[in-house]
Description:
The complex is a heterodimer of chains A (941) and B (334). Chain A is mainly beta and 941 residues long. Chain A has two domains: 41-142, Sandwich (Immunoglobulin-like), CATH 2.60.40; 255-940, TonB-dependent receptor, beta-barrel domain (Maltoporin, Chain A, Beta Barrel). Chain A contains eight helices and 50 strands. With 334 residues, chain B is mainly beta. Chain B is built from three helices and 20 strands. Chain B is globular, with a radius of gyration of 29 Å. The model of chain B has no long low-confidence stretch (mean pLDDT 91). Chain B: Keywords: Signal.
Amino acid sequence: xxxxxxxxxxxxxxxxxxxALCVIAMLCTLRVMATESEPSRGLVIGKxxxxxxxxxxxxxxxxxxxxxxxxxxxxxxxxxxxxxxxVKAIEIRYIGYENVILDIEVEAGxxxxxxxxxxxxxxxxxxxxxxxxxxxxxxxxxxxQQKSADNIKNIVAADQIGRFPxxxxxxxxxxxxxxxIERDQGEGRYVLVRGLAPQFTNISINxxxxxxxxxxxRYVALDAVPADQLAxxxxxxxxxxxMDGDAVGGSVNLITRTAKSSRPTVSGSLVGGYNNILQTPNxxxxxxxxxxxxxxxxxxxxxxxxxxxxxxxSDNWETDTEELELRDYALVRTRxxxxxxxxxxxxxxxxxxxxxxxxxxxxxxxxxRYVFVPNLDNSPFESHEIERLTKDRLEKxxxxxxxxxxxxSFPNLFLDYEVAFSEAYQDTPFDVEVGFVGxxxxxxxxxxxxxxxxxxxxxxxxxxxxxxxxxxxLYEFDELTSGNTFAYDANRTAxxxxxxxxxxxxxxxxxxxxxxxRWKEKSYRIxxxxxxxxxxxxxxxxxxxxxxxxxxxxxxxxxxxxNGRFLIQPNVDTDQVITHFNANKNGYELxxxxxxxxxxxxxYTATEDVYAAYAMTKIQLQKLMLLGGVRFEQTTVNYxxxxxxxxxxxxxxxxxxxxxxxxxxxILPQVHAKYQLxxxxxxxAAITASYSRPNFEQIVPTQEIDLNGRxxxxxxxxxxxxxxxxxxxxxxxxxxxxxxxxGGVFYKQLNDFIFNQRFVSDEFNGRDLGANVQFTQxxxxxxxxxxxxxxxxxxxxxxxxxxxxxxxxxxxxxxTDSRATIQDREDDNGTEEIRLPGQTKHxxxxxxxxxxxxxxxxxxxxxxxEYISEIGGSKDEDIYVKDRxxxxxxxxxxxSNKFRVFGEFMNITNQPFEVYMGNENTTIQxxxxxxxxxxxxxxxx
Amino acid sequence: MIKIxxxxxxxxxxxxxxxxxxxxxxxxxxxxxxxxxxxxxxxEEGGDLPDADEYGLEIKFADYLGELPNQPIIIxxxxxxxxxxxxxxxxxxxxxxxxxxxxxxxxxxxDENSGTGTIALAVDTDLETLPEExxxxxxxxxxxxxxxxxxxxxxxxxxxxxxxxxxxEYASLDNDLAGEWILAITSEEEFEKFxxxxxxxxxxxxxxxxxxxxxxxxxxxxxxxxxxxxVLLEEEExxxxxxxxxxxxxxxxxxxxxxxxxxxxxxxxLEGSHFIxxxxxxxxxxxxxxxxxxxxxxxxxxxxxxxxxxxxEDNYEEGEELFSEEVxxxxxxx
Lengths: 941, 334
């Protein structure tokens, strides 16, 4: 349990500065020493592939025999190793494969190219499985990359993603230790790494940050990215200085595919699915083409496309403890991804590449609601009301990125550089909601059953088919809301990295430095029109009379809502109301003030310029690898926005445009150590500094001040990023039969933690408000800390006897605990401690697989513990998402190494999404998705 | 073989792309990108006392965005179902400049025989747009009368349409309390009774005492709305400027209470809203109120008004009422 901050703010500041100075001094000293004692050395370039499949093997460890200094092969299986000219042989290791020792001749000061790729043979115990099904390849690739990495990271290879029934990147990430996800309509959307909210995790594509298509925030909804677009996913939990420093929880990097050989590759999948709640089929397909062309395979082209369409739905009830809502959702979601990589290798040590990625996610949502609003106090000024609303909206998220760069290797220098443009936008071309309202004489709601509430209307139980609430002629038109939004975010980036190998005494080492600039543009605009009806009786569809729901009902009918526990009638058909609107504008009155206020208060534009530079070194001292360095990042933000004021009578008084800017800098020292206990066992430790920028919606000082309500919400231009010092310790043992046992602890001390503060003032920004107003504003100043334990185990149990040797286990568990100090919600002058929002105490995965010849079967459980999703006005109003276990199953049958069929069965136990307020007995939401399934073929020609 | 696979794979990819690019748009979109200006009547119904000789009906643009049109509009109208002949005296709008109000007339044509006519809504030379609102002044026969006024169509080259309501029904007021009544308060005790009923919904009234008033309280019952004016002893200088002529007069200050009312069979119900003033002297909240009363009409032109109960949104349960003491006043028809 964490009682108080490990270090005070002053101590942390001194710690950071001291660490940075030490690292700089170390870099300078080492480089000077190296210059004095540098022997003659040369660069060895080669490629590691599977002897049978000829597939490249990423993450292979290559080192001089009897030395611990080495290099790791990249995703293309290629490596560059600087060794002394005395070296006569190198050794290549790869988990699940037999070690290879290769004799070489190294010429001092020159590049030695290994003409033939180094072919590695799978260890005998796995050979048959690899050849026939390839199911182990993904796991092997991931573990080898993880093992050879300098820092603490988890890697999910594409083949491994395919072993779980995870259609998008967020769902694939939930299988990684210490990672949980927030779901939307049952599908994973946002990723939380190590118990920190999504804004603490940096999302990149090919090493460059992805702009967020959503307004106001930085984090990216990962359900927009199809999982089969990627070669692998890396989750870095301890940053190195050559990485962007704005990631406190972790950094997720999505890596696209590259053409591997002159042999054309054609692979893909065709999948059909079924969603039980809507009883509709869905469709998915992917196709990947790749080939290297020309003499020596200099030109590589890889094209990848995928399309996924699914009908989804959910049945939901929710409450604020007074009003009851019944929500019936129907959605159509599509995901389309197109990516390409064109690379040209001038020779073995000079390469240019151009990577593109385009992802398009659409979400058409239709939401039908009953809202029961009881007149709890029996006020003569109010009545028992039932609202009927239908929302229909299309949301399109487009994320695209273009990376142009090069890599050059010289005997004594490595250089890489890149310019990139990435763009994301969320376009909501239409967002319509139509509401009708009815009044009843009596309405009472009973929440005594926390699973399903019940209600009575005019003396009849809600299960009574003659209940008045089921009569659509009861409901009169209330309002039509129509609008659209457009959020835009774009990054332009330029960077370079230079690596210089050197020798320190007998130790091989590398010094690396580089710089990066990123220019961001972000904006949001909203159109919102609210119309009332002033035209009296209506004539529509051959009937005339009052503007009641029965004339405009239609759309989807759900006769089994919440498994038949509640009866619902067809709701408003928005198309019919819009048809009426278009033909009868004379009767619809636009609420002009509301439109002006809403559009002004939410719209903004911003630019963010980031300049960064770093220096680091890596030294191999026998079995100990030390990596240290420091990174400097400076950020300048400029923005335009509007202030919206309401007068004492609640009327819109004034809208004033405004502009501002903010600037901040960070020095981020980072030290990593990796000690090789034996060939398959590493001990890792890291102390790193990082930070997390505030969301734009928090920093842009948009004001909305309602003098009538004495309330105001304002942005905070002085808001500082959350800074963190992270301590990590991890032990990992890799099994020769493909597997890993790992365990580690981490501790994060967060400074300037951001929370919503309330305060009262009678003036703001020099404006005399004439009354005391309670403001809500994001503020810094409070501290938070978080500690955790991660344990992971995965192994193919091929050592077991008989039929059991086909078993495989994939399991991990993470425990986290956190404390954040915020302003006391009962007493503005005091403080109180809370858990960090998003932090879940227990988190885990357990997956059991069985390989029987050509058949692979896997059942997977994902456990996500309860967490605070929203901090309320008091402890009793904190909103918690309940713990949830999802059970999925998948089976694959390989006809050959070219064709496989598979089936997936997800959310088998129909686990609901459940939310409670304050305490577990006060359930305020239960949403059910039922199960869904997919079946398809995968081919790899 | 590979070539064939690549060929069909390419076709499949293009097909997939085309399917994917087909957006999942709605079947029908709201056509509201350039929402039109809507010319509407200010009310659907109205009326005045039977002896009224004129009545003004306002026509205006509903809430709009941007600048009003700068092109003229011809409004076609019809007066129908009139129980007695009704004429139009003038069509006017007000233009304000330097704190002075100028009345400007609009051209109109009206054919009493057919009951139809037109109004030429012209661009004001100073505003350089159409006026935001204007008034049709009807000449009434000074008898009980009913008629219907309807805007039948518009001729406009700008983005302006005829909005709802476009039909107005006039009917002479015929309820028991219609018109103006005088309540004479002659004693401090009587004023305190009056205050006990109305001060909870008038912060100004709660701050004065008997010595501050003239004793005259005017109750004016119009079309569905009524107004109470408490005339104070304190005077103020009132300056009015119309058509370039400024007049300054000394008038008694007045405290006003406004409400909608329903009257039927000796029962009177007032409904309105009142402001809650905070310690800082500013409006803190606005609450609806209901005042229940009874009345009896006397032969001598007076009426007895018995106030029964006053509640608002925060004080409506039994024992919590703002007023429930039953006080009675005699009011006299003016």
